[in-house]
Amino acid sequence: MHDHDHSKGGDKRLVGAVLVNTLLTVAQVVGGVLSGSLSLVADALHNLSDAAALGVALVARRIARRPADTKRTFGYRRAEVVGALINLTTLIVVGLYLIYEAAARFLNPQPVEGWIVVWVASIALVIDVATAVLTYRLSKDSLNIRAAFVHNVSDALASVAVIVGGTLILLYDWYWADLVAAVLISVYVLYQGITMMGDTVRILLEGVPPDIQLSEVTATLESIPGVRSVHHLHVWQLDETHRALEAHVVVRDSATDAKQLKVEARNVLMGQFRIGHTTLELELPGETDTCGNHESLPGCFEEP
Known about the structure:
With 304 residues, the protein is mainly α. Helix content is 66%, strand content 9%. It folds into two domains: 2-204, Up-down Bundle (Alpha-lytic protease prodomain-like); 214-283, Alpha-Beta Plaits, CATH 3.30.70.
């Protein structure tokens, strides 16, 4: 019940953040058009992606809470990882588009109204910081929410860059400062998007968690009394917090206590590697497993 209430509270924070960011986007677009500021329009587009990111994160979060069924036997946990993938892809596309626009503006400079830029960007900064605070706690445990959180943090930094650019225009008529601010925003957006994309893709491709070495897992399992060798070992992540393993374990002889061996294996896998979902197939020495030497058959995989 407590978890359910916590989830509902998190959802409400996300809904509020989406509404505030949508209104801010409209204000920034109007301010950017009136002032002629590319960096302010860039910040508005980035902020629009923030609102969309928060919306995607909210939908993915709700889908991920659905229980397992006959179609999704592992449940819907990866919906949040898919949400993160969508948000990060959007972040990268926005970053590339802003660099393109900045390059075009360098070739065709336009006057910028500094005061409008500074005031609108200042309001945006306050809202961006407030939104980041709303999503910070949720981002600690979810790649999906963390992707949306990065959107907000990068947008807050973008607002700072826009304010600095507007101030330089007011003080020194340095109109190029607006374009530099737009480029800095774009580079930061791209950096964040590409950096976080690696974790997202690794989970979706069922990669081994970065803190796990298969050789260590094999050695640990083979150190358990009664275990002769381990093969067909596969380790992957269902989502950020749930890990799974399957392996064929060759026991020393038919007298080995299979039940006790499995209990020890599962305990050590959970304790040392935080692997909670374990499937172990026990084999006697010389016994041929289902795949044998036919790794190309459906359901059979080559040894890593």
